[in-house]
Amino acid sequence: MLENITFANPQFFWLLVLLPLAMLWYFFKHKEETASLKMSSTKGFTDNGILPKLKPLLFVLRLLGIGAVIVAMARPQTKDVSTKTKTTKGIDIVMAIDVSSSMLAKDIKPYRLSALKKVAADFIKKRPNDRIGLVAYAGESYTKTPITSDKSIVLSSLKDITYGQLENGTAIGMGLATSVNRLKESTSKSKVIILLTDGVNNAGFIEPKTAADLAVEFNIKTYTIGLGTNGNAMSPIAYNPDGSFRYGMQQVQIDETLLEEIANVTGGKYFRATNNNKLEAIYDEINKLEKTEIEEFKYTNYEEKFRPLIFLAVILLILEWLLRNTLFRSFI
Q1: How far apart are CA 144 and CA 330, in angstroms?
Q2: Which of 16, 99, 271, 298 is 20 to 30 Å from 53 at the Cα level?
Q3: What is the 3-state secondary structure (H, E, C) of the chain?
Q4: Banded pLDDT at 45 (limits 50, 70, 90)
Q5: What does the pLDDT look like over 231-282, one tens digit per residue?
């Protein structure tokens, strides 16, 4: 309890030095008043009981009362600090995710799309003050989740993204254009697209450069991520009779030149994720690059605690006065 107590006027504690000085004064004064007298016999004196021996109690009560007043003058108080945050500059973010068959490649464990969803979920959880939307694309694209501040909806939608929901292919231009369409009417001061792909543009009716120009027109920054190891990767190459994928080694082809151009022209940055750790590091870096401005307000509530001390001091001093003028009156 005492660790929560602070004092508004601690300088008054210097007055406590007067208390030991008063004790010294009382000791020498009492010694003078009780000077010894040698007598041949004390039979003529009767014992007045224990009351005279308790006379110093009056002085103790007075000192305690004065001490309580001094501590009260130091104004003990408790302090309760509450904070309130306000987002002064939020960011609207759309994550465009490639869901083509090559995202099932196993060069990134357990496979590309699964690893991406895990890292993307962590990224979303680290952006509590921003609005986030999801776009999925393969040979075509669609909005999985419009930009929203409800992270539970975004995380649930991200979990539901799988291969097979769209025509196969890699329509980078379509994915980027759909993302721009979700952000173009946003009133946020900062608008960002995080576009991830593991291939080259080979589908769709919108060219990636055209979509990038649209992003520039609406002042939308684009971070691009090329996902896949260097060289060859175990990837789906055909279907087995039971409908499952047959895997084989295929060369990893990513149009890095295109992704760099999209990032540069929109004011973003291009990244290459060749393994799980690198993918996590990329999203961490984007998280650091795109900072949301938060304004924090602190409210401090002080509760004064000197009143009980004043009450105690009054009781002690009144008790000392009553005892002095009643029980101890004949001994003073």
Answers
A1: 96
A2: 16
A3: CHHHEEECCHHHHHHHHHHHHHHHHHHHHHHHHCCCCCCCCCCCCCCCCCHHHHCHHHHHHHHHHHHHHHHHHCCEEEEEEEEEEEEEECEEEEEEEECCHHHHCCCCCCCHHHHHHHHHHHHHHCCCCCEEEEEEECCCEEEEEEEECCHHHHHHHHHHCCCCCCCCCCCHHHHHHHHHHHHCCCCCCEEEEEEEECCCCCCCCCCHHHHHHHHHHCCCEEEEEEECCCCEEEEEEEECCCCCEEEEEEECCCCHHHHHHHHHHHCCCEEEECCHHHHHHHHHHHHHHCCCEEEEEEEEEEEECCHHHHHHHHHHHHHHHHHHCCCCHHHC
A4: very low
A5: 899 998 888 888 788 899 999 999 999 999 999 999 999 999 999 999 999 9
Whole-number pLDDT of residue 77: 87
Environment class of residue 137 by beta-carbon count within 10 Å: exposed (0-12), middle (13-18) or buried (19+)?
buried
